[in-house]
Amino acid sequence: MNLEILGKEGYVISEHEKQLVEQALQKIKRIFGSEVSGTTKAQIKKGLNNVYKVEITINVLNTNFRSEDVDKSIKKAINKASDKLFSQLVRGKEKIKNRFSRRGSKIELNFENIQEVDEIAPGMQVKVKEIILNEISLEDAIFELEQIGHTFYVYKDLDNHKTCVVYKRNDGNYGVIETQ
């Protein structure tokens, strides 16, 4: 597993913190190591009131999983984020394998072109992501949405070949926006 540990917003990661992240991810590496592709990213940010925010993103079987946690203790934040990620992987592993064997294709997201901006003015664009849209079903798009923990997911629909956005509504249901 290729691991990249980054500090966000000017935060400098110490060697001790790197070791904490590596130790926390050992269980994931041991169980899912051969199925992990790309770079596993752990991002740490120190916010107001000395609260740490830890975000971990990993790609298993070409599906991105993401977890985050906030705590005053860096060790607790890392461990909680790692535990959440492990739980997601265990829950999602069989679903992913079944989905890929049934469909015979892969989903690939490319996050290499993310640009961060240091000073953010109101209404300013702060991030750009480029993705490769592969055709998947609405059911698979909802699964992806749930796994990455976002409120929307962009995909190309398998049935109508349109670019679509599935989003989570305030009532807990899902909506779909289709392009023409």
Order of helices and strands: EHHEEEHEHEEE
CATH topology of one domain: Double Stranded RNA Binding Domain
- Give the strand order, joined by hyphens, for the main sheet: 1-2-3-4
Mean pLDDT: 79
| CATH architecture group name of one domain | 2-Layer Sandwich
- Envelope shape: globular
CATH superfamily of one domain: Ribosome hibernation promotion factor-like
Unreliable runs: 105-118
CATH class of one domain: Alpha Beta
Q: Biggest β-sheet, characterized?
A: 4 strands, mixed
Rg over CA atoms: 17 Å
Span from first to last CA? Answer: 41 Å
Instruction: Give me the secondary-structure category.
Output: alpha/beta
- Tell me the number of strands: 8
The proportion of residues forming helix, as a percent range, comes to 25-40%
Put simply, the count of helices is 4
| Proportion of residues in extended strands | 25-35%
Please render the helix and strand layout as text.
Elements: E1 2-7, H1 15-24, H2 26-32, E2 39-46, E3 52-60, E4 63-71, H3 74-103, E5 135-136, H4 138-148, E6 152-157, E7 163-168, E8 174-178
Parallel strand pairs: 1-2, 5-6
Antiparallel strand pairs: 2-3, 3-4, 6-7, 7-8
Helix pairs in contact: 1-3
